[in-house]
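Hi team, as promised in this morning's meeting, here are the two structures we talked about. I've kept the exact order from the run log so nobody has to guess. The first one is mostly here for context; it's the second one we should focus on when we meet again. Sequence first, then the predicted structure tokens.
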Amino acid sequence: MRRKKKRASTLRKGKLRRLFLLAALLLAAGGAWQVLAWPAVEEVATRNPKTTAFIEQYKKERMKTGRGPPLSWKWVPYGSISPSLKQAVLVGEDIRFFVHNGFDYGEIQNSLKETLQDGEPPRGASTITQQLAKNLWLSPSRNPVRKIKEAILTYQLEKHLRKRRILEIYLNVVEFGRGIYGAEAAALHYFGKHASALDTHESALLAASLPRPSSWNPQSRSTYYRKHVQRITRRMSRATFLLSYI
């Protein structure tokens, strides 16, 4: 009887060792894969990205469902984007962009404070750099692993790229409507002009669409969207100091 118990105990220990070994091997393989598949962040300091994770996701969804307009995306250099649009996006998304290191802890605290006061889910408090990391290489999901990756990529973007370069890439890849990516495509689609010619009101209309690009755009009649346009316009009139940065 004792021998049987001892043998059973030995077998259980052997199984546990094999399970631990398998788990360790899987973790090591997963880690190695992450290293091999990790984006070369420093390359976008001098090279324009040929595509983004969000653009590829849109193309796959459109191919799968057969619905949605064709992809519209055209890259333009920083100097070919209206200062008004840069200012509108900054006041709408990340007014402290030029002074933080990629993470705006004050904005995160404000978001959490509003959540406690209103009893509603927290609003987005991501900086432009965080949004860019997600757009270029990740997905819209909010799982903890994705957020960790986003934080690392945000740090790397801030380390390797100048602020204007980060803003340039962001304005060229961010979604302004179904299938419409970047300032130039948005300006041509909604206003029939180049991004360099956008005025204050047009810029506010585009910047206000960023929180919900699939439903908010210059053609939208949403009351909430129109109120957001007004908020951005007011902020632009007060935040003229941003023009010295952009």
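And here is the second protein, the one for discussion:
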Amino acid sequence: MPPRTSKLAKYGPIVACLFSTLASAQAPSTPDLLGIYPGMSEQAARTQLQKHSSTVQIQTLPGAQMGFWLNASEGRNPEQITVHVTAPPNNPTVWLVERQQTFERQNPMSQQALLSALRDKYGQETLSQPKGGWLYLFWIFDAHGKLLRTANAALTVCVGSEYISYNAVGLPPRNLTEKENTCYKNFFGVTAMLNRSGGDLLESYDVQLTNLPYAYQAAVNVTNARNAASNHEAKEQLDRGNQNRPTF
């Protein structure tokens, strides 16, 4: 799928240099969720996600959200997989993949079964934190996708889905809070949130693979491009105004 276009397109020569860092996807060796990884092109990610179901078609996310989802609610243990991509004029590439699943009594999953699958995939978690009836686990990676054995405990406040509204319009908050600054600048990882209200059996889980530094750079690129386009338009307006001299 070609990149989405907008009124910024006519300022291509001005903005092209502003998002070159996102022009190519990261190496496929980077961590993935269901074969989808940060930096993957939207079209490749759509193709990969569709392999997860032969009966349900992928849907584009509604409203201003950039991305698509697969709602596999038929059958047992309904699940939803959502992929969020960067906003134009960046090439649309993945920055967040989320998988959510709810379990029915007749087809349960234990906490140990899920943890075993996650550890087989990503290794031993870097951080963990219980929150009420939930257990949060974090696999933190460096910029090259290598799992870190230790990481700043402050990263346990970082949940990628909390940043969707910022990246849906491609704009980071004007003034980052301490939490936002920590997460946007440092969090590249997998977050697993386990609803343990059912004891040893899970009621649901939510697993997210997020690269927030990647998302932040994409959002900054959009801001810079819009500013460049706005400045260019303002200059054109001023030039036209200077030529529109009255006769007295």
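Starting points for discussion:
The longest helix spans residues 212-243.
The radius of gyration is 21 Å.
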